[in-house]
Predict the structure.
Amino acid sequence: MAVVKLLGTWFSPYGHRVIWALKLKGILYEYIEEDVRNKSPSLLQYNPIHKQVPVLVHGGKPICESTVILQYIDEIWPQNPLLPADPYDRAVALFWIKFADDKGLLMSKLYRGNGEEQQAAVKEWLEMLEVMEEHALIGVKKFFGGDEINMVDIAFSFVAHWLGILEDVLGLEIFKPHKFPRVSSWIQNFKSSPIIKDNLPDADKMSTFLKRGREMMLTSKSN
Ligand SMILES: N[C@@H](CCC(=O)N[C@@H](CSSC[C@H](NC(=O)CC[C@H](N)C(=O)O)C(=O)NCC(=O)O)C(=O)NCC(=O)O)C(=O)O
Ligand SMILES: O=C1O[C@H]([C@@H](O)CO)C(O)=C1O
């Protein structure tokens, strides 16, 4: 069996997508922690274009971009499928995964913004939550794919875990559960499901880390 390695960084929402996918499939892998502020030669060699984690290395061959990696994992290890088999259901799932990928940058916008920039990011977050509430989650029971977690849940995980941490870091309340009851129950289902719950990065640790990072950013901006 070809060796499976994952280059990730502990706070990355994208790296966690791959960790969960591998664990949901029951695949053993070697995890290699990267410092994205001081990238290893392997990371630069495996992902010379974006120089980002995650990178999955399967039998020595690198695969980059979390969504591409998850599709690859689903093809190589078909057990516990991450995408629906029905072509229409699959297209709908891929639509929402693309939507989530396009909105992922809202994390950085919120975290790195100030004043008007931050307000614009909050507005975009609220618009996205509204779309999840009124479109993506209509008719959804426990998870996007039914009773089991699939790739759409994984793609939206930044809403389930990272948004709350960013709110804490910035002292903002963006997600009001009573305004988004469907999103709220999906978050609870997602975060309490076994493999996800056991492999979420620690919220307090991340909050401390991101607060420190933000102080450093603010100091360097004002100098
Ligand atoms: N589209 C990729 C995104 C992967 C990614 O963003 N990885 C981050 C760690 S997650 S952290 C989330 C990430 N932010 C950053 O990477 C901040 C980069 C800044 N230059 C810094 O070093 O602090 C982000 O917003 N990403 C959205 C995007 O790129 O579309 C990384 O390796 N960064 C190193 C670098 O860029 O130099 C995927 O899905 O795999
Ligand atoms: O460096 C970053 O960390 C956060 C987020 O990814 C938390 O994990 C973010 O948006 C960045 O740009």
